[in-house]
Amino acid sequence: MKTSLFDDTIENIRTAADIIRDGGMIAFPTETVYGLGADALNCEAVGKVYEAKGRPSDNPMIVHIAETSELARLTDDISEDMRVLMDKFWPGPMTMIVRRKDIVPDVTTGGLDTVGVRLPSSDVARSLIKESGCPIAAPSANISGRPSPTTAEHVIHDLYGRIDGIICGEDCDFGIESSVIDMTCDPPMILRPGAITREMFSEALDREVAVDQSLFKRPKNILEPEHVAGAEAPESDDDFHPRSPGMKYKHYAPCAEMIIFDGESESVMKAMDAETEELEKQGKSVFKLSFTDEKLAAHELFAKLREADELGVDVILAEALPEQGLGFSVMNRMLKSAGYNVRRIK
Predict the structure, then answer these.
(1) Do 62 and 247 touch, CB atoms closer than 8 A?
(2) Which one, 14, 22, 72, 242, has the greatest CB density within 10 A?
(3) DSSP string of 220-245?
(4) What is the Cα Rg of the chain in Å?
(5) CA distances (Å), 60 to each of 36, 97, 171, 247, 309, in order?
(6) In this predicted model, what pLDDT tens digit does every residue of 281-312 receive, in sequence order?
(7) Residue 62: closest CA among 218, 182, 224
(8) How do 136-137 and 4-7 pair as beta strands?
(9) What is the pLDDT of residue 59?
(10) pTM value?
């Protein structure tokens, strides 16, 4: 397949929108990560996205809209809580899980009776949706399981020759995917953490929101957060039907082995230095990750994992972040990237 590369001018966005309307696939920047878009209501077009990414068919997609009013096209159930969150966080990195209308096909939702809907703040993304004249289903624009793309170069590396076009815009602001909150239950439940944190949701609704227990899955050598100590393990993959992207399948994985070091910063750095020395004695190359703050970590994590892949390193050593606020969201990605390979340093 020939893949066209577009600058993010309005003329090029209109050309890309024509491709979307004709059932094609376009990768485009958002404020979170780059998305791979197709007409969300076109079964054949959405099917092409699954094929291009190598994405499992029961992994639901998020549908992107350009205006709040367009939500009513996708669901009949718009609650007062939903209106509060829309007023507070849209446009922005929030996806709401809602009951879907029949107009949304099974292929888009992974067979669920719900659909995730987001209104991005990226001007390029919203322009593409408006010019296309349809809601756009758009998972991250990468090969399934790889670190999410935060630059056009990442998309080109993964999907060039697999899709119709790529809008090459600016690097993504947030660097991790949207927060996903299920609005079909009471209280609303966070299914995937992101830039909008549990604390922010709770403050907006003036009550506590829940967090899906699978987000607290940890290997035995990791201490559980106090407020969920003793949480049961999530269902087995065979029986588990994900309600949101990122809940079931391997995600964000670099090619190299990755180890997370968790503990007091000074002790962690000493342990990482010692591990580096030992690995280098074995002839292995090492890439170390340590972030000074949560926001920087969110912005750079996926890009750094891809940099390590480009360098062809054998092992990535990463310092854990405190699991509060945005740090919880970043650690969700980091733990999955490492396959929960964590060392607790005392």
Answers:
(1) no
(2) 242
(3) TTSPPPGGGTTPPPPPPTTT---SST
(4) 20
(5) 14, 11, 25, 10, 27
(6) 999 999 999 998 999 999 999 999 999 999 99
(7) 182
(8) unpaired
(9) 81
(10) 0.90
Amino acid residing at 145: G
One-letter amino acid of 204 = A
Helix pair 80-89, 198-205: axis angle to 10 deg: 120
Give Cα 175 distance to the centre of its chain.
9
Residue the block writes with tokens 């079964």: 43
Tokens of residue 237, six digits:
């993959």
Amino acid at 64: H
Cis peptide, bond prior to residue 187, ω within 30 of zero: yes
Q: Taking residues 165-192, what's their average pLDDT?
A: 97
**Taking Cα atoms as reference points, which of 345, 295, 298, 294 lies closest to residue 317?**
345
Please, what is the Cα angle at 207 between 90 and 336, to 5 degrees? 65
Are 27 and 3 spatial neighbours (Cβ–Cβ below 8 Å)?
no
Give me the amino acid identity at 290: S
- Farthest-apart Cα atoms in the chain, separation: 62
